[in-house]
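Example 3.2
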Amino acid sequence: MPDTATATANIGVIGLAVMGSNLARNLSSREGNTVAVYNRSPERTDLLLEEHPDEGFVAAGSIEDFAASLTKPRTAIIMVQAGKGTDAVIQQLSDVFEPGDIIVDGGNANFQDTIRREKALREKGLHFVGVGISGGEEGALKGPSIMPGGSVESYKTLGPILESIAAVVDGVPCVTHIGTDGAGHFVKMIHNGIEYADMQLIAEAYDLLRNVSGHEPAAIADVFETWNSGDLESYLIEITAEVLRQVDAKTGKPFVDIVLDQAGSKGTGVWTVQNALDLGVPVGGIAEAVFARAVSSHPEQREAVQAIVESRPDVVAPAAGTSFEDDVRAALYASKVVAYAQGFDAIIAGAEKYGWDIDKGAVATIWRGGCIIRAQFLNRIVEAYANDATIPSLLVDPYFAKAVKEGEAAWRRVVSTAALSGIPIPGFGAALSYYDSLASKRLPAALVQGQRDFFGAHTYKRVDEPGVFHTLWSGDRSEIATEPSTH
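Structure, written as tokens:
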């Protein structure tokens, strides 16, 4: 493996596992890019060069040679495991880079870590950019959706490079400068949270079609293929049909029947829920998707409950005169609207808390291609924010409001049928409850406030006059005006 001390590369990649290698290949395939590559284990660098000898990579045997091979301002994308590994590479680069150079973290980092790292490197005169990259291994190679944060100044150098490798929809690259410091990784986190919700809703739709309609997986695949030609068109609907058609070579059974029903997660869904709680934003659809995976991953609890349950409800026949398949499609679409609305609510709240100027329409635009949640549906979100950038919820947008209204009866029929049949639908159910909470003129939160004031003097407000009040519950139960509780 040759070393070089000549600055010929305009971009470098550190970390050459599958994602890093594919990203390096994507970069090298675009006109105007010369790519320097480095990996802590030189064997990975050697393998990349052997398998792709015509890519024109500039290989480095040390971090010093890697830095020397980059033209100024030096720009390096780190593609290593999040956490301590990323911090170690950042430290190495900061030792050999100079003020004005750009260090990019392209992994699934926690945005709080990105904020911390950006601040520390800024003090050294270096630019640090957290970049969310969605699309998996194929996206990294052929064109992902890219969500960069960092300074406006760094994006002047980095932007054209990222635009050269991003997915393109309607002539528009699926990349935009999200905002400063951790904004890119924050939006990528929300993207992944929405992805959790979308997958859970699709899985519930499958479960309903199988257990209520009695369809076999291949027949459900046909249903999903039909849905994919309409307003539910998306990458996840498309691949769901492919998964349901797959037959296990060993047993001849449907693939979905030989897979253990325990779903894991890698943390970003959990981060979304945790940060939404901190921001005070309800993301029940995403949370229930995370919890559904957690429930599935506790077989000992499931088995214990199943052992004491003597009987389960009989499956209830769908309402006469209705198409259950059409009802499930409508319920899926309405629940999907809720999940995306909650995700964008979290983006809005995060932008306000951390001082980011995030263009919601631009986010929806770059999610239309390259990423896992790419869908026709996102064009409607782009239009919604183009019509009113300050809309309080996507559920208020005329198009989505009409779609939910038209599907509401079907949505309720599906949730009712599932509940009466003992079929778990945490995603559909949570989405409908959220919608009902927003639509109800009065909520039982009034009673909750009364309870809080009784046991903790947390105070309350009245509907008929301004101010904050407390009832002397342990005394004569008279009401006094007071300052609001801070607890």
